[in-house]
Design a protein that fits this description.
Elements lengths: L1 E4 L3 E2 L4 E4 L2 E4 L7 E2 L3 E3 L6 E3 L3 H4 L2 H20 L7 E6 L5 H14 L4 E6 H9 L4 E6 L4 E7 L2 E2 L5 E3 L3 H15 L1 E3 L5 E3 L4 H6 L2 H8 L14 E5 L4 E5 L1 H6 L12 H10 L3 H8 L2 E4 L8 H14 L4 H5 L7 E2 L8 H9 L3 H7 L1 E2 H7 L10 H7 L10 H8 L7
Length: 404
């Protein structure tokens, strides 16, 4: 089975896709991490299948998605897609247009037999072997928080804040232009702002990964400056120690909706008897959380916010501690790993899968956040006496859904 993470996962056994981590179920890591771009044969245009503008053009989206998924099978997985089973690890709030386009491409163009759409936050709990957890996904554009209790996503507690890897990269780039210098020869030192084009062209993500870390709340010490090579300018960037240690502070900014306030807000919206258990099982995933010291600083910020008597959480939440899980493997692949593990549970996959025949009859997928019972009954064939599918139970357990 293959697993694709668009996040996508695919299961012949099974294929797993997370967009865009691709591999086979039962494996400890994705085989490939690929960009979500494809080239349309009809026009020669290169498009990003996840672009918002493309979602508004269903025919073009279907063509692009078909081309993209064919590339995955033919150029990466090197597998015959016919009659295979696929797990799609998707965002909780994926647009229905995108979900239907993926299903159309897989069923109509690649002839897969079964497709399962699973929310990424839920699959993260498979990676750590827990039924309950508070999953914090720090992605590129935003941070999403979703509590999972006994295998059921508490959808009305979902939170999102616009502080993630993109904001961190923007902050680091601006600080470099403001505070750093570029050195060539020993006597040739220039402000980084004078070589703006060369600095902007640098892979900021690489600078962050190699040189930056998250300082603790009570640590104001400034680390040593380091040199980062600028090959395009045949010189080196003298990276200020302040930038290395303080740039991540933007992700915990108390003046706006911060990550720690989103977490406590999600806990506050959970039923009282769930709160202690999910706070003892915090799981932080996503590439934005890979900086050293991130979890320690997050725990400090959470405790400080709870102890602040001016904040509503001090009186409304009786939480004494937070405990963090360390997932196996890289934390930016935790969703994919959960899909890989889920793909090995063949009975569970078949119970939750949409078949090619049923999709051909109905022509669309149900929205599991607000499902059409008649459509779901037609699409999902569950054996008598079997447990109710996870996504059906989760949607019926919550009374509201986040806007898309």
């Amino acid at each position: 089975m293959s697993t694709l993470s668009m996040r996508f996962v695919t299961t012949s056994s099974h294929h797993v896709i997370t967009c865009n981590r691709v591999g086979m179920s039962g494996e400890p890591a994705p085989r490939f991490i690929i960009p979500s771009r494809t080239r349309l044969k009809s026009s020669g245009e290169t498009v990003n299948v996840m672009e918002t503008e493309l979602l508004q053009n269903a025919p073009k989206l279907n063509k692009a998605m078909s081309s993209f998924l064919k590339d995955i099978y033919l150029n990466y997985l090197l597998l015959n897609s016919k009659d295979s089973r696929v797990i799609i690890v998707e965002s909780l709030i994926s647009p229905m247009t995108l979900r239907n386009s993926i299903a159309f491409a897989l069923f109509q163009h690649l002839n897969v037999s079964h497709v399962v759409f699973m929310p990424s936050h839920l699959l993260c709990t498979f990676a750590i072997g827990k039924l309950s957890a508070l999953v914090v996904d720090i992605g590129y554009k935003e941070t999403e928080v979703l509590p999972i209790y006994e295998g059921i996503p508490i959808v009305n507690a979902w939170q999102a804040v616009p502080f993630a890897a993109e904001e961190l990269q923007r902050t680091v780039r601006n600080l470099i232009l403001e505070k750093c210098e570029v050195t060539g020869d020993p006597d040739d030192v220039k402000p980084a702002s004078m070589l703006r084009d060369e600095v902007i062209s640098v892979e900021i993500e690489d600078i962050i990964v190699r040189t930056c870390f998250v300082r603790s709340q009570d640590n104001d010490a400034t680390p040593l400056d380091v040199q980062y090579p600028l090959y395009s300018a045949n010189s080196s960037l003298l990276l200020n120690g302040y930038i290395r240690s303080h740039s991540a502070d933007v992700m915990f900014d108390p003046e706006d909706a911060s990550i720690q306030s989103a977490i406590l807000e999600a806990v506050l919206k959970c039923p009282r008897d769930c709160r202690k258990k999910i706070c003892e099982n915090l799981l932080v995933v996503g590439g934005g959380a890979m900086l050293p010291g991130f979890n320690y600083r997050l725990k400090q910020e959470l405790c400080s916010l709870l102890e602040d008597k001016d904040q509503k959480y001090h009186s409304k939440l009786n939480i004494s501690s937070f405990k963090f899980h360390t997932p196996p493997g890289q934390i930016n692949c935790t969703q994919w790993l959960g899909g890989s593990i889920f793909g090995m549970l063949e009975t569970a996959v078949l119970e939750r899968a949409v078949t090619r025949e049923k999709f051909a009859e109905c022509g669309r997928l149900p929205d599991w956040l607000s499902p059409d019972p008649a459509l779901r009954e037609e699409l999902h064939v569950v054996k008598r006496g079997a447990s109710t599918p996870v996504m059906t139970r989760s949607s019926s357990a919550s009374k509201s859904k986040p806007s898309t």
